[in-house]
What we know:
By secondary structure, the protein is of the alpha/beta class.
Amino acid sequence: MEKILMTRRGFDALDEELRQLKSVERPAVIRAIAEAREHGDLSENAEYHAAREKQSFIEGRIKEVEGLLGRAEVIDTSKLSGSIKFGATVKIVDEDTDEERTYQIVGESEADIENNLLNIKSPLARALIGKEPGDSVEVRTPGGERSYEVISVDFR
């Protein structure tokens, strides 16, 4: 099976989600199903069907998270240095607009662009891999070609 690269923070977040699903969400939905059953006829019981659907989602997510954690390869970013690679926190500037952005390059399962966590498989991350401060990269985006200059690389 293919290993899934993850930062320690990403691994810990998934581990916490799994704990929450198993110890809080699963017991709550089991109680909701039991309560809905007490209301009688299940064929027309919307509460029962909603609880069963939620249970199905929770069980599916538990399996998914367990699979991710089982295949995780946690990378200690504090031991890395040099050019941009997985785990790097990169400050870049758009060469056209002078807009600065900072991203950490992370695995697919922990990527969240709203929190500046950039998927390693994204076009921008792929273009940045191997670059160093002062280097320029060209990235094809849905909005057209973009040019960025690498300002800094940090491994925290």
